[in-house]
Amino acid sequence: MADKRDIKFASGTEWGEALRKWHSRLADNRGDRAALKKCKSPVQVVFIPAFHEIYQEITTIGRAAIEEKAIKWSWGKLEKRIRDRLPIIASLTALVKPPEEPNKGGEAKRKPVTLPSQMGTARSSGGGPVVSDLRFRRLLKCRTPEELYPALRRIIGLLESQADIMILAQDIFDWNEEVRKRWAYEYYAAEYYATEETKQEGSES
């Protein structure tokens, strides 16, 4: 639905900056980060005090946006979405390593890579994508973030705890048929180009 696009977890937005700062604070508090990483279900996340820091910040931003008519959501609908999906976002982003500091040479920032693109990329050791086609198709069968949660916990581990927390948060917050379809396009595009590169390298050797 169009109204979901009004809420953006991205650099420069209130939603995104709140998440980024919270994630940065977690890096300095190993106890809170470890507690969130251990959660096996979204319900367990709600009992972690560190989660309520980001929950209060996001709900404050949401209330203000509704009062200012900056988004089309009703408070009841938005509050339910935040309560259902923010615990999942918090726990999964806690699994992600903090981004490295930019080097002094002023190297240009790399374009953020989506999670399905990472999954479809070839393994460094060879032998297919990081996440197999079968495992990826199981992901796409998940109708709710709650179903997706345990699988993504394992997959972030396969990705060596590397992910863009903004893209991850947005996809979980919006998770629906449209997002699943986009994931399929991005995963198979990455897998295709990885296969083509392997073929090219083989022909050159």
Q: Helices, strands, pairings?
A:
Blueprint: H1 14-27, H2 30-38, H3 42-46, H4 49-67, H5 75-94, H6 115-120, H7 133-140, H8 145-158, H9 165-174, H10 177-204
Helix pairs in contact: 1-4, 2-5, 4-5, 5-8, 5-9
Q: Could you characterize the architecture of this molecule?
A:
The chain has two domains: 2-94, no CATH class; 115-200, no CATH class. Helices cover 65% and strands 0% of the residues. The protein has helices at 14-27, 30-38, 42-46, 49-67, 75-94, 115-120, 133-140, 145-158, 165-174, 177-204. It is built from ten helices and no strands. It is an all-alpha fold. Residues 1-5 and 102-108 have low confidence and may be disordered.
Concise account of the structure shown:
The protein is mainly alpha-helical.
List the keywords.
205 residues, mainly alpha, 2 domains, 10 helices, 0% strand
Distance between the termini: 49 Å
As a percent range, the share of helical residues equals 55-70%
- Low-confidence sequence ranges: 1-5, 102-108
Helix/sheet category: mainly alpha
Number of helical segments with 4 or more residues: 10
Largest sheet: none
Shape: globular
Radius of gyration: 18 Å
How much of the residues is beta strand, in percent?
Answer: under 5%
The number of E-state strands comes to: 0
Tally of individual domains: 2
Order of helices and strands: HHHHHHHHHH
Q: Indicate the mean pLDDT.
A: 88
